[in-house]
Design a protein that fits this description.
This is Tripartite ATP-independent periplasmic transporters DctQ component domain-containing protein. By secondary structure, the protein is mainly α. Helices cover 77% and strands 0% of the residues.
Length: 200
């Protein structure tokens, strides 16, 4: 487990770093794109739009994989939250996590096929193939599937241990929220809203 946590942290740092670099490049190119539209500037490179698209999609897909790793991705958790900590909730967690794993596996498979079929060069960046553009799909889907497999193992272990894994993860989440000012503000706002909605 120690080696897995180390591997996971390294992958997380790499994905956040690459996504941050992509964001910086996108921002710089947006500024350049705006500047080249000024009437007194004659330089108008055609490669800017396609380059922005390239780094933007890589940033989005790597960011999505990082959110899956940290369990911060968007989920519909009405049922799992309602039955949280119960045997029903643990079974629902296994089912929903397994469905996510299948989804990421399908995305990975068709992403690889798309990359293999996209041998043509990009329109303005002739030195790059379109497969480099599309490769963000299988790369991110691979890591999404990997971390979802981790969650699926935790869900199965949670059933075996009668909720011990959930209690440990809840404790870790609560500890992390204590150090997160944004999370504390959201939790306080949610608590205040809940109190306002309660009948007097």
């Amino acid at each position: 487990m120690k080696y897995w946590n180390k591997f996971e942290n390294i992958v997380g740092v790499l994905m956040r770093s690459i996504a941050s670099v992509c964001l910086g490049i996108v921002f710089a190119l947006f500024i350049l794109n705006i500047a080249t539209r000024l009437p007194f500037i004659t330089y108008n490179p055609k490669w800017i739009d396609e380059t922005i698209q390239f780094f933007l999609v890589w940033m989005i897909f790597l960011g999505s994989a990082e959110l899956v790793r940290t369990r911060g991705h968007f989920v519909v958790d009405i049922l799992t939250d309602h039955f949280h900590g119960t045997a029903t909730g643990r079974v629902l967690a296994v089912i929903s996590t397994a469905l996510m794993l299948v989804t990421y596996a399908v995305i990975f498979y068709f992403g690889v096929r798309l990359c293999m079929k996209s041998d043509a060069a990009m329109y303005t960046l002739h030195f790059m193939k379109k497969s480099y553009f599309y490769s963000c799909i299988p790369v991110s889907a691979f890591f999404m599937a990997l971390f979802t497999m981790r969650d699926l193992i935790f869900c199965v272990m949670d059933i075996v241990t009668h909720g011990a894994v959930t209690r440990r993860l809840d404790a870790e989440k609560a500890e992390a929220m204590k150090q997160d000012d944004d999370a504390k503000a959201i939790a306080e706002a949610a608590q205040a809203l809940k109190q306002d909605q309660e009948p007097q």
